[in-house]
TrEMBL record:
Keywords: Golgi apparatus, GPI-anchor biosynthesis, Membrane, Signal, Transmembrane, Transmembrane helix. It is found in: Endomembrane system; Golgi apparatus membrane. This is Post-GPI attachment to proteins factor 3. Belongs to the PGAP3 family. Involved in the fatty acid remodeling steps of GPI-anchor maturation where the unsaturated acyl chain at sn-2 of inositol phosphate is replaced by a saturated stearoyl chain. May catalyze the first step of the fatty acid remodeling, by removing the unsaturated acyl chain at sn-2 of inositol phosphate, generating a lyso-GPI intermediate. The fatty acid remodeling steps is critical for the integration of GPI-APs into lipid rafts. Coiled coil: none annotated. One of its GO terms (cellular component) is Golgi membrane. One of its GO terms (molecular function) is hydrolase activity, acting on ester bonds. Its main location: membrane. GO terms for biological process: GPI anchor biosynthetic process. It comes from Branchiostoma floridae (Florida lancelet). The keyword Membrane applies.
Length: 169
């Protein structure tokens, strides 16, 4: 004779645990959705939310980034600036950022951040020249060290190709 009453009871307990876990997962998912929905409001900085910046940006884009203004911008923009990703909209953002900084300073306020970053003067198309220099130096260090790795580690080593792919990604 086989006793099945204990088996049914275990199934009921498992079913209750499953329902509780599912409810917990639903609550976690709901909280995650609510937090994610609130993130865009937190991403804007004081400078790029300011009335001065937004009106300047709208005026600039309407004047320079449409029709004949866009054609004029494209013919006058240096080639290297386009290659570095400076399109008409980015140029307007840059110009309006500095107009807004001047507006804040005239009003006796601190210099605001824009898009989560402090304003920097653009040098040869790089808005953050120190960051560019350190990134290039970091890239050079990686190239030197991958050369050292290749000279000291045999090609048949177990992770030789994995390290090479990871280093060059």
């Amino acid at each position: 004779m086989v006793c099945t009453s204990g088996l049914k009871k275990n199934k009921e307990v498992t079913s209750e645990n499953f329902k509780k876990n599912l409810l917990k997962m639903d609550i976690v998912a709901l909280v995650a959705i609510l937090v994610a929905a609130g993130i865009p409001a937190c991403l804007a900085s004081l400078g790029d939310r300011s009335y001065s910046f937004l009106t300047c940006l709208q005026t600039c884009e309407n004047a320079k980034c449409r029709g004949p203004g866009l054609e004029r911008f494209n013919t006058n923009q240096p080639r290297y600036m386009g290659l570095l990703g400076w399109d008409c909209t980015e140029e307007c953002k840059y110009e309006c950022m500095w107009d807004t900084v001047q507006t804040f300073q005239r009003a006796g306020k601190d210099v605001p951040q824009f898009y989560g970053k402090w304003p920097f003067v653009r040098v040869l198309g790089a808005q953050e020249p120190a960051s560019v220099v350190f990134s290039v130096l970091n890239g050079l260090a990686h190239l030197v060290m991958i050369g050292v790795f290749r000279s000291r580690v045999p090609k048949n080593a177990p992770l030789y190709w994995t390290v090479n792919v990871y280093a060059l990604r």
